[in-house]
Amino acid sequence: MIDELTEQQMIQLISFINSHKKKGKTAASMKGVLSDYANADFFRQEDGAWERAVKQKYDNT
Length: 61
Hints:
Largest sheet: none
Number of strands: 0
Structural class: mainly alpha
Distance between the termini: 26 Å
Strand content: under 5%
């Protein structure tokens, strides 16, 4: 999932984490905040994603 982030999205995520660390937030509380932004559709797509990617990459070789 993190490989799919654009450079701008990665910068925003790092900035978000750093700002919450400065406020004394724990990793668990940050995970809770980030889960508010999670896309449940992506979780369903994750199942079997690696296998599909390998097949797509090497099926035609």
